[in-house]
Amino acid sequence: ENDREMIAALGVDISRLYTLIFALGAALAGLAGALVGAIQSVQVGMGEPVLILAFVVIVIGGIGSIKGALVGALLVGLTDTLGGVFLPQFFGLFMAPAAASSVGSSLASMAIYILMGAVLIWRPTGLYGVRA
């Protein structure tokens, strides 16, 4: 808030600056949507899987922490990839191959949410979050 007052004292119109920044952000989001639309099919809710994964990353890392977001993204990526590779093989040791593939794939897709639950039980603010 002090920065806002200082900039206003220098003669900058704060409300106009905020409006321009908002317009720039909206334009960039529209451009990104148009570019992705050329690659993927456009449909309602097309960004929800990415949004949900981003939410899981932020919760694991801790809200407001850049370092936490990096660590959370690495943990989610490793958990998803390694779970998809090794869990079906692990269950294949004592189950039929078709059942092991089905159970392993199901648990691999649930593993990031299990990881998020474990992190929230262990550290409710996330790995690098701070208490308010």
Q: What structural keywords apply?
A:
5 helices; mainly alpha; 76% helix; 132 residues; 2 domains; elongated
Q: How many E-type strands?
A: 0
Our measurement of the CA-to-CA distance between the termini, rounded to an integer number of angstroms, reads 19 Å
Count of the separate structural domains = 2
Give the mean pLDDT: 89
Strand content: under 5%
Helix content: over 70%
Largest sheet: none
What would you say about this model in short?
The chain has 132 residues and is an all-alpha fold.
Compile the SSE list and pairings.
Layout (H helix, E strand, L loop, with lengths): L1 H8 L4 H26 L8 H14 L4 H26 L5 H26 L10
